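User: My instructor asked us to take a sequence, write out its structure as tokens, and then describe one feature of it. I'm not sure where to start. Here is the sequence I was given:
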Amino acid sequence: METPEMEKATSLTNPAQQIDPETAESFIGEKKIGERIKRLRLKKSMGLVELGKHTGLSASFLSQLETGRVVPTLRNLARIAMVFSKDLSYFFDPEPRTLFRVHRQSERVRLPQSGVDDPTYFFESLGYLVPDRTLDPYLAEFIPLKKGVEVRSHVHPGFEFLYVLGGEMEIRHGSQNYILAPGDSVYFDASTPHSYHCSGTENARVIIVTQHQAVMAQPSMNLRPLGTALSGAFRSGASAPQEKRAPGKQEAAPTQRTIITRGKTPRNAEMESPI
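Assistant: Let's start with the prediction itself. The structure tokens for your sequence are:
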């Protein structure tokens, strides 16, 4: 009498139950082992000949391996894995998904400035579907300030970038004021008190990108701001649109970095060397 174990062994040795070679090749191809090896090699700026010296495999064999024309044995794959300090499972585990999110205009929500009865801007988040994002992009529309309306400056770790689509904006960074026209952009250290508002008679539309996470200090590049500081009394503007994030109270950084890029700057305009 055959036991269940004997029946299982018989079924596995039955030619009718053997795995089709094409199916096995397809299974291996789906793992994209060759592509993974090539990515590891290029990441280390390593040539095929150099990899061959480390593994004892010929450059021609490695080339065929990367293009999927040959299938490696576990022994050869182990040699390659050890060169890059990887486990064999690296070549068979599912690859992580690449982050890619599309935000349709019809799906966005237009929100008013929070915490005030009379908002000075409305904004739409352009990255709300991205979890654990490090950048917060917005499309904001600023309306001309009414008389007597004052909005305080604010600070937060990281940097901000603004690009003016239409209208006119005034930005204050530290003790300096700048006027931005359509096509102008500004990149600045957000740990310095800053504010901005619509300075024209028509609404201003702006793309705003904020970086709230603490980042390492960027190296000094001796860049010359292209904007000209405005003289006159202190004028404060609206704070950056944020998704209900209360700005932390922090001391201003001793060094203020504001870089203005004018939309009408000639392409052949000379720029100061960063060195």
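For the description part of your assignment, you could build on this observation: The two ends are 87 Å apart (CA to CA). Try explaining in your own words what that tells you about the chain.
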